[in-house]
Protein backbone atom coordinates (compact mmCIF):
# COMPACT_ATOMS: atom_id res chain seq x y z
CA UNK A 1 0.00 0.00 0.00
CA UNK A 2 1.24 3.52 -0.76
CA UNK A 3 1.95 5.91 2.10
CA UNK A 4 -0.93 8.14 1.01
CA UNK A 5 -3.40 5.22 1.18
CA UNK A 6 -2.08 4.34 4.64
CA UNK A 7 -2.57 7.97 5.70
CA UNK A 8 -6.14 7.95 4.36
CA UNK A 9 -7.14 4.56 5.71
CA UNK A 10 -5.62 4.42 9.17
CA UNK A 11 -8.03 5.36 12.00
CA UNK A 12 -6.95 8.63 13.58
CA UNK A 13 -7.90 11.08 16.31
CA UNK A 14 -7.67 14.85 15.86
CA UNK A 15 -6.85 16.85 19.01
CA UNK A 16 -6.21 20.40 17.82
CA UNK A 17 -8.96 21.84 15.66
CA UNK A 18 -10.73 25.17 16.05
CA UNK A 19 -14.28 24.71 14.81
CA UNK A 20 -14.40 28.36 13.67
CA UNK A 21 -11.27 27.59 11.64
CA UNK A 22 -13.10 24.89 9.68
CA UNK A 23 -15.50 27.43 8.12
CA UNK A 24 -15.13 26.97 4.36
CA UNK A 25 -15.17 30.01 2.06
CA UNK A 26 -18.31 28.50 0.44
CA UNK A 27 -20.17 28.33 3.77
CA UNK A 28 -18.95 31.82 4.73
CA UNK A 29 -20.36 33.12 1.44
CA UNK A 30 -23.67 31.27 1.87
CA UNK A 31 -24.19 32.49 5.46
CA UNK A 32 -23.24 36.08 4.55
CA UNK A 33 -26.04 36.01 1.92
CA UNK A 34 -28.48 34.38 4.36
CA UNK A 35 -27.95 37.06 7.02
CA UNK A 36 -27.30 40.02 4.67
CA UNK A 37 -23.79 40.44 6.07
CA UNK A 38 -21.46 42.47 3.83
CA UNK A 39 -18.11 40.73 3.39
CA UNK A 40 -15.02 42.59 2.14
CA UNK A 41 -14.86 40.06 -0.74
CA UNK A 42 -16.69 39.91 -4.10
CA UNK A 43 -16.62 36.12 -4.50
CA UNK A 44 -15.64 32.81 -2.91
CA UNK A 45 -12.44 32.97 -4.99
CA UNK A 46 -11.60 36.36 -3.45
CA UNK A 47 -12.03 34.92 0.05
CA UNK A 48 -9.60 32.12 -0.80
CA UNK A 49 -7.14 34.57 -2.33
CA UNK A 50 -7.08 36.63 0.89
CA UNK A 51 -5.63 33.74 2.92
CA UNK A 52 -1.98 34.76 2.85
CA UNK A 53 -0.64 35.42 6.31
CA UNK A 54 2.55 36.90 7.71
CA UNK A 55 2.10 35.79 11.28
CA UNK A 56 -0.49 34.63 13.81
CA UNK A 57 -2.12 38.07 14.23
CA UNK A 58 -2.66 38.64 10.49
CA UNK A 59 -4.52 35.31 10.42
CA UNK A 60 -6.55 35.98 13.58
CA UNK A 61 -7.86 39.27 12.14
CA UNK A 62 -9.46 37.40 9.20
CA UNK A 63 -10.53 34.44 11.34
CA UNK A 64 -12.53 36.61 13.79
CA UNK A 65 -14.05 38.62 10.92
CA UNK A 66 -15.02 35.39 9.10
CA UNK A 67 -16.75 34.02 12.21
CA UNK A 68 -19.07 37.05 12.06
CA UNK A 69 -21.34 35.21 9.57
CA UNK A 70 -22.24 32.59 12.22
CA UNK A 71 -25.51 33.86 13.68
CA UNK A 72 -28.13 31.23 14.53
CA UNK A 73 -28.25 27.69 15.87
CA UNK A 74 -28.55 26.21 12.38
CA UNK A 75 -25.31 27.97 11.30
CA UNK A 76 -23.39 26.39 14.19
CA UNK A 77 -24.98 23.02 13.43
CA UNK A 78 -23.95 23.26 9.75
CA UNK A 79 -20.40 24.33 10.63
CA UNK A 80 -19.97 21.36 13.00
CA UNK A 81 -21.73 18.91 10.68
CA UNK A 82 -19.53 19.84 7.71
CA UNK A 83 -16.38 19.30 9.81
CA UNK A 84 -17.58 15.95 11.21
CA UNK A 85 -18.56 14.77 7.71
CA UNK A 86 -15.03 15.61 6.62
CA UNK A 87 -13.74 13.55 9.58
CA UNK A 88 -15.78 10.61 8.33
CA UNK A 89 -14.14 10.90 4.88
CA UNK A 90 -10.66 11.05 6.44
CA UNK A 91 -11.08 8.15 8.88
CA UNK A 92 -10.93 10.43 11.91
CA UNK A 93 -12.86 8.33 14.41
CA UNK A 94 -12.44 10.61 17.42
CA UNK A 95 -12.00 14.38 17.61
CA UNK A 96 -11.51 16.93 20.41
CA UNK A 97 -12.83 20.21 19.08
CA UNK A 98 -11.98 23.70 20.33
CA UNK A 99 -14.55 26.48 20.23
CA UNK A 100 -14.09 30.15 21.14
CA UNK A 101 -17.22 31.26 23.04
CA UNK A 102 -15.99 34.85 23.38
CA UNK A 103 -15.86 35.26 19.59
CA UNK A 104 -19.64 34.83 19.71
CA UNK A 105 -20.69 36.20 23.11
CA UNK A 106 -18.92 39.48 22.26
CA UNK A 107 -21.44 39.73 19.38
CA UNK A 108 -24.35 38.92 21.71
CA UNK A 109 -24.64 35.35 20.47
CA UNK A 110 -24.87 33.21 23.58
CA UNK A 111 -24.18 29.66 24.70
CA UNK A 112 -27.91 28.92 24.17
CA UNK A 113 -27.39 29.52 20.42
CA UNK A 114 -24.07 27.82 19.56
CA UNK A 115 -24.08 24.93 22.05
CA UNK A 116 -27.36 23.31 20.89
CA UNK A 117 -26.15 23.59 17.27
CA UNK A 118 -22.77 21.99 18.06
CA UNK A 119 -24.28 19.23 20.21
CA UNK A 120 -26.92 18.29 17.64
CA UNK A 121 -24.25 17.81 14.95
CA UNK A 122 -22.03 15.84 17.35
CA UNK A 123 -24.93 13.50 18.25
CA UNK A 124 -25.76 12.99 14.57
CA UNK A 125 -22.11 12.15 13.77
CA UNK A 126 -22.09 9.60 16.60
CA UNK A 127 -25.32 8.03 15.27
CA UNK A 128 -24.54 8.10 11.56
CA UNK A 129 -20.74 7.76 11.42
CA UNK A 130 -19.83 6.31 14.84
CA UNK A 131 -17.51 9.30 15.40
CA UNK A 132 -16.93 10.30 19.03
CA UNK A 133 -16.28 13.96 19.74
CA UNK A 134 -15.41 16.05 22.78
CA UNK A 135 -15.51 19.83 23.22
CA UNK A 136 -12.68 22.07 24.46
CA UNK A 137 -13.79 25.56 25.50
CA UNK A 138 -10.96 28.01 24.75
CA UNK A 139 -10.44 31.40 26.33
CA UNK A 140 -9.14 34.26 24.17
CA UNK A 141 -5.86 35.31 25.75
CA UNK A 142 -5.88 38.84 24.28
CA UNK A 143 -8.89 39.54 26.55
CA UNK A 144 -8.54 40.00 30.35
CA UNK A 145 -8.70 37.12 32.80
CA UNK A 146 -11.96 38.56 34.18
CA UNK A 147 -13.60 37.89 30.76
CA UNK A 148 -12.42 34.25 30.95
CA UNK A 149 -13.98 33.94 34.44
CA UNK A 150 -17.24 35.33 33.05
CA UNK A 151 -17.16 32.83 30.18
CA UNK A 152 -16.52 29.94 32.57
CA UNK A 153 -19.57 30.92 34.55
CA UNK A 154 -21.79 31.43 31.45
CA UNK A 155 -20.86 27.89 30.37
CA UNK A 156 -22.25 26.32 33.55
CA UNK A 157 -25.45 24.84 32.05
CA UNK A 158 -23.23 23.00 29.54
CA UNK A 159 -20.42 21.74 31.81
CA UNK A 160 -21.39 18.12 31.24
CA UNK A 161 -20.81 18.56 27.50
CA UNK A 162 -17.36 20.16 27.86
CA UNK A 163 -14.29 17.97 28.45
CA UNK A 164 -11.48 20.50 28.62
CA UNK A 165 -10.67 24.18 28.86
CA UNK A 166 -8.02 25.77 26.63
CA UNK A 167 -6.21 29.01 25.83
CA UNK A 168 -5.77 30.47 22.35
CA UNK A 169 -5.51 33.67 20.25
CA UNK A 170 -2.58 36.17 20.23
CA UNK A 171 0.24 34.50 22.12
CA UNK A 172 3.02 37.10 22.38
CA UNK A 173 2.45 39.47 25.33
CA UNK A 174 -0.23 37.19 26.80
CA UNK A 175 1.64 34.50 28.76
CA UNK A 176 -0.17 31.65 30.53
CA UNK A 177 0.56 33.34 33.90
CA UNK A 178 -2.13 35.93 33.02
CA UNK A 179 -4.74 33.14 33.39
CA UNK A 180 -3.39 31.20 36.37
CA UNK A 181 -6.44 31.78 38.60
CA UNK A 182 -9.14 30.96 36.06
CA UNK A 183 -7.40 27.70 35.09
CA UNK A 184 -7.12 26.76 38.75
CA UNK A 185 -10.88 27.19 39.00
CA UNK A 186 -11.46 25.18 35.79
CA UNK A 187 -9.25 22.38 37.13
CA UNK A 188 -11.19 22.32 40.42
CA UNK A 189 -14.40 21.94 38.40
CA UNK A 190 -12.96 18.76 36.86
CA UNK A 191 -12.00 19.99 33.38
CA UNK A 192 -8.93 18.74 31.54
CA UNK A 193 -6.57 21.58 30.66
CA UNK A 194 -4.81 22.49 27.41
CA UNK A 195 -3.08 25.69 26.26
CA UNK A 196 -1.47 27.02 23.10
CA UNK A 197 2.17 27.66 23.97
CA UNK A 198 5.43 27.81 22.06
CA UNK A 199 3.79 28.48 18.70
CA UNK A 200 5.07 32.05 18.31
CA UNK A 201 5.86 32.47 21.99
CA UNK A 202 9.08 31.35 23.70
CA UNK A 203 9.82 28.12 25.57
CA UNK A 204 9.17 29.96 28.85
CA UNK A 205 5.46 30.08 27.93
CA UNK A 206 5.48 26.26 27.72
CA UNK A 207 7.05 26.11 31.19
CA UNK A 208 4.32 28.43 32.50
CA UNK A 209 1.58 26.33 30.90
CA UNK A 210 2.95 23.24 32.66
CA UNK A 211 3.83 24.74 36.03
CA UNK A 212 1.11 27.38 36.46
CA UNK A 213 -1.83 26.01 34.47
CA UNK A 214 -1.05 22.30 35.07
CA UNK A 215 -1.89 21.42 31.46
CA UNK A 216 -2.65 17.90 30.27
CA UNK A 217 -1.43 18.80 26.76
CA UNK A 218 0.40 21.60 24.99
CA UNK A 219 -1.07 22.94 21.73
CA UNK A 220 1.77 23.48 19.20
CA UNK A 221 4.83 23.60 21.51
CA UNK A 222 7.23 23.44 18.56
CA UNK A 223 9.59 25.99 20.17
CA UNK A 224 10.32 23.56 23.05
CA UNK A 225 13.65 22.65 21.44
CA UNK A 226 15.03 26.01 22.57
CA UNK A 227 15.25 24.64 26.12
CA UNK A 228 17.01 21.35 26.95
CA UNK A 229 15.53 21.04 30.45
CA UNK A 230 12.05 21.55 29.03
CA UNK A 231 12.67 18.82 26.44
CA UNK A 232 13.67 16.47 29.27
CA UNK A 233 10.50 17.28 31.20
CA UNK A 234 8.22 16.80 28.16
CA UNK A 235 9.92 13.45 27.51
CA UNK A 236 9.78 12.22 31.12
CA UNK A 237 6.18 13.24 31.74
CA UNK A 238 5.10 12.34 28.17
CA UNK A 239 3.12 15.57 27.97
CA UNK A 240 1.56 15.50 24.49
CA UNK A 241 2.22 18.22 21.90
CA UNK A 242 -0.53 18.80 19.33
CA UNK A 243 1.57 19.87 16.35
CA UNK A 244 -0.01 21.53 13.27
CA UNK A 245 2.39 21.45 10.29
CA UNK A 246 0.42 23.38 7.63
CA UNK A 247 -0.47 25.99 10.26
CA UNK A 248 3.22 26.48 11.09
CA UNK A 249 4.01 26.93 7.40
CA UNK A 250 1.08 29.26 6.63
CA UNK A 251 1.77 31.47 9.70
CA UNK A 252 5.51 31.63 8.88
CA UNK A 253 6.62 29.83 12.05
CA UNK A 254 8.75 27.94 9.49
CA UNK A 255 9.69 28.98 5.93
CA UNK A 256 9.65 25.52 4.39
CA UNK A 257 8.08 22.20 5.45
CA UNK A 258 11.56 20.67 5.16
CA UNK A 259 12.46 22.72 8.25
CA UNK A 260 9.69 21.23 10.39
CA UNK A 261 11.03 19.70 13.61
CA UNK A 262 8.28 17.11 14.17
CA UNK A 263 10.49 14.13 13.26
CA UNK A 264 13.28 15.43 15.53
CA UNK A 265 10.78 15.78 18.38
CA UNK A 266 9.56 12.22 17.79
CA UNK A 267 13.14 10.92 17.68
CA UNK A 268 13.85 12.68 20.98
CA UNK A 269 11.07 10.64 22.59
CA UNK A 270 8.34 13.28 22.81
CA UNK A 271 4.67 12.37 22.50
CA UNK A 272 3.76 14.35 19.37
CA UNK A 273 0.60 14.28 17.26
CA UNK A 274 -0.42 15.75 13.88
CA UNK A 275 -3.42 18.09 13.63
CA UNK A 276 -4.99 20.61 11.25
CA UNK A 277 -5.64 23.66 13.55
CA UNK A 278 -7.71 25.88 11.17
CA UNK A 279 -7.92 23.69 8.07
CA UNK A 280 -9.86 25.96 5.71
CA UNK A 281 -7.50 28.88 6.41
CA UNK A 282 -4.25 26.92 6.31
CA UNK A 283 -4.83 24.91 3.12
CA UNK A 284 -5.59 21.42 4.34
CA UNK A 285 -7.47 19.09 6.66
CA UNK A 286 -5.77 16.38 8.71
CA UNK A 287 -4.74 13.96 5.97
CA UNK A 288 -3.28 16.85 3.95
CA UNK A 289 -1.08 17.63 6.97
CA UNK A 290 0.23 14.06 7.02
CA UNK A 291 0.84 14.15 3.25
CA UNK A 292 2.65 17.52 3.50
CA UNK A 293 4.99 16.03 6.14
CA UNK A 294 5.56 12.86 4.18
CA UNK A 295 6.47 14.83 1.04
CA UNK A 296 9.08 16.94 2.82
CA UNK A 297 10.53 14.83 5.63
CA UNK A 298 11.94 11.38 6.20
CA UNK A 299 8.69 9.65 7.14
CA UNK A 300 7.95 5.98 6.57
CA UNK A 301 4.98 3.75 7.30
CA UNK A 302 6.13 3.11 10.89
CA UNK A 303 6.27 6.84 11.60
CA UNK A 304 2.73 7.30 10.30
CA UNK A 305 1.51 4.43 12.47
CA UNK A 306 3.31 5.91 15.51
CA UNK A 307 1.74 9.33 14.89
CA UNK A 308 -1.74 7.78 14.55
CA UNK A 309 -1.21 5.75 17.76
CA UNK A 310 0.00 8.92 19.52
CA UNK A 311 -3.23 10.69 18.58
CA UNK A 312 -5.24 8.18 20.64
CA UNK A 313 -2.67 7.97 23.48
CA UNK A 314 -2.78 11.77 23.81
CA UNK A 315 -6.57 11.99 23.74
CA UNK A 316 -8.96 12.36 26.66
CA UNK A 317 -10.70 9.07 25.78
CA UNK A 318 -11.08 6.54 28.64
CA UNK A 319 -8.00 4.31 28.99
CA UNK A 320 -9.76 1.13 27.77
CA UNK A 321 -10.99 2.86 24.59
CA UNK A 322 -7.49 4.29 23.96
CA UNK A 323 -6.01 0.81 24.26
CA UNK A 324 -8.38 -0.53 21.59
CA UNK A 325 -6.75 1.86 19.07
CA UNK A 326 -3.04 1.57 19.82
C1 LIG B 1 -5.35 29.73 16.39
CL1 LIG B 1 -3.25 28.80 14.99
C2 LIG B 1 -3.97 29.55 16.35
N1 LIG B 1 -3.19 30.00 17.33
C3 LIG B 1 -3.75 30.64 18.36
N2 LIG B 1 -5.07 30.84 18.46
C4 LIG B 1 -5.86 30.39 17.49
N3 LIG B 1 -7.18 30.44 17.34
C5 LIG B 1 -7.48 29.86 16.18
N4 LIG B 1 -6.37 29.42 15.59
ZN1 LIG C 1 -4.68 26.33 17.41
Distance between the termini: 20 Å
Number of spatially distinct domains: 1
DSSP helical segment count: 17
Under CATH, the topology can be stated as: TIM Barrel
Kindly provide the radius of gyration, computed on alpha-carbon positions and rounded to a whole number of angstroms. Answer: 18 Å
- Strand % is 5-15%
- Arithmetic mean of pLDDT: 98
**Helices and strands: which structural class?**
alpha/beta
pLDDT < 50 runs, ≥5 residues: none
Question: Layout of SSEs?
Answer:
Blueprint: H1 3-9, E1 12-18, H2 25-34, H3 44-49, H4 56-66, H5 73-89, E2 92-99, H6 101-105, H7 111-129, E3 132-140, H8 145-154, E4 164-168, H9 180-188, E5 192-197, H10 203-211, E6 217-220, H11 228-237, E7 241-243, H12 245-250, H13 262-267, E8 272-274, H14 279-282, H15 286-296, H16 301-313, H17 319-325
Helix pairs in contact: 1-15, 5-7
Function: Catalyzes the hydrolytic deamination of adenine to hypoxanthine. Plays an important role in the purine salvage pathway and in nitrogen catabolism.
Active site: 199
Protein name: Adenine deaminase
TL;DR of this structure?
Helix content is 49%, strand content 14%.
Description of the structure:
This protein has 326 residues and is an alpha/beta fold. The protein has a single domain, classed as Metal-dependent hydrolases (TIM Barrel, Alpha-Beta Barrel). Helices cover 49% and strands 14% of the residues. It contains 17 helices and eight strands. It has helices spanning 3-9, 25-34, 44-49, 56-66, 73-89, 101-105, 111-129, 145-154, 180-188, 203-211, 228-237, 245-250, 262-267, 279-282, 286-296, 301-313, 319-325, and strands at 12-18, 92-99, 132-140, 164-168, 192-197, 217-220, 241-243, 272-274. The protein has an eight-stranded parallel sheet. Helix 1 packs antiparallel against helix 15 and helix 5 (73-89) packs parallel to helix 7 (111-129). The longest helix is centred in the middle third of the chain and has 19 residues, at 111-129. The radius of gyration is 18 Å and the shape is globular. The two termini are 20 Å apart. The mean pLDDT is 98. Bound molecules: 6-chloro-9H-purine (ES4) and zinc ion (ZN).
Amino acid sequence: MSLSSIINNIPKAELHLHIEGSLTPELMWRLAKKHSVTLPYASVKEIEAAYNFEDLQSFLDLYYAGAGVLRDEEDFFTLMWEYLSRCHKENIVHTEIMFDPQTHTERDIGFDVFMPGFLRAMDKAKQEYGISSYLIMSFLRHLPESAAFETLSEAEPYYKHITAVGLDSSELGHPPSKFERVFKKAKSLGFKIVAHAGEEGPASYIWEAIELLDVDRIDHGVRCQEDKALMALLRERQIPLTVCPLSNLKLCVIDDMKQHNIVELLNEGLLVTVNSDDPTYFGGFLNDNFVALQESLDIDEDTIRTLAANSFKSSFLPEDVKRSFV
